[in-house]
Design goal:
single chain; about 300 residues; alpha+beta; 6 helices; five-stranded antiparallel β-sheet
Length: about 300
């Protein structure tokens, strides 16, 4: 049985390719398997068989995936006695670099009541063909997902850049600049963004969703003089992903990306600056290049 969505209704991180053949192969190789569950690396089920559903198996899988980074000695997986008649086997699936892809959990009935569970290595050997195929499938699914996200991100980058380049420079208005700054804030996941060009009396400030405009004004009041001075002195982009207690920005609890707006190759007219909250993802090289293009 394929699961298209996670238990909370959010889309599963990997694609919708059916895992039925792999589940059926596991069942064929291990006829005593009663419950089979395939989980992704986020701890979400992507496939369950139509047999006995075991809440205990789901608990073991979810706990394992949530704690995987701290577990010792479970590179490939482990077995665990569930009750006197059943044992659970958990197999961790990894990419060639050892990063977690997901896990397979199997609730297996023992050959005799109260009997000792079969060694984990024996069951792993029986299932190796299925596990290796499933591992390759999951790796392909994640690679496709990463490619789709990358293409979507690049499409949004192009939309932002094209939107900024389609205006007539001779007729640009404050609304045009406000739209550009808001586009940067929304597209790059920022809390505050601003375009400051003192000689032209341009001062545009926009905030992200859920951030009060007053917050943006307070951030700029604290930083704009130092940012302008730094840009005029260095004439290059400033990227601060580790908020510090000292330096040109003082104790500012934000990540900062500040790009100078140049006249020719020497004179700094102003700057295009973006602020992210300290816990937000860093400004990466792609984002720096986009903002630099917009600043030009």
């Amino acid at each position: 049985m394929q699961l298209a969505v996670a238990l909370d209704g959010a889309p599963a991180p990997i694609g919708a390719t059916t895992f039925d053949p792999y589940g059926q192969l596991v069942k064929m190789l291990l006829p005593r398997a009663q419950s089979i569950a395939i989980y992704d690396r986020m701890g979400l089920p992507v496939w369950l068989n139509d047999g006995v559903d075991s809440p205990e198996l789901h608990r073991i899988l979810q706990d394992t995936l949530l704690q995987e980074s701290t577990l010792q000695g479970v590179e490939d997986g482990f077995s665990e006695v569930v009750d006197r008649d059943h044992s659970a086997y958990v197999f961790l699936l990894r990419d060639p670099d050892g990063r977690l892809l997901g896990a397979v959990g199997i609730l297996c009935r023992e050959s005799r009541q109260g009997g000792d569970p079969r060694p984990f290595a024996m069951v792993q050997g029986l299932l190796r063909p299925a596990l290796e195929c499933l591992q390759r499938e999951m790796l392909a699914q994640y690679s496709i997902g990463d490619l789709q996200r990358s293409l979507t991100m690049r499409d949004r980058d192009l939309e932002l850049l094209l939107g900024a380049s389609q205006g007539d420079p001779a007729s640009e208005s404050p609304d045009d600049f406000a739209q550009l700054v808001q586009g940067c804030v929304d597209h790059l996941g920022c809390s505050v963004g601003a375009l400051l060009i003192p000689d032209k009396n341009i001062a545009v400030c926009r905030t992200g969703q859920g951030i009060a405009p007053r917050t943006g004004a307070e951030v700029l009041t604290r930083t704009h003089r130092n940012l302008l001075a730094w840009s005029q002195l260095h004439r290059r982009t400033m990227t601060v992903n580790q908020p510090a207690e000292s330096g040109p920005l003082g104790s500012l609890p934000y990540k900062v990306l500040s790009c100078p707006v140049m006249h020719g190759a020497q004179r700094v007219l102003g700057l295009l600056v973006l602020f992210k909250q300290a816990q937000a993802p860093d400004f990466d090289l792609r984002q720096v290049r986009i903002v630099e293009l917009l600043a030009r």
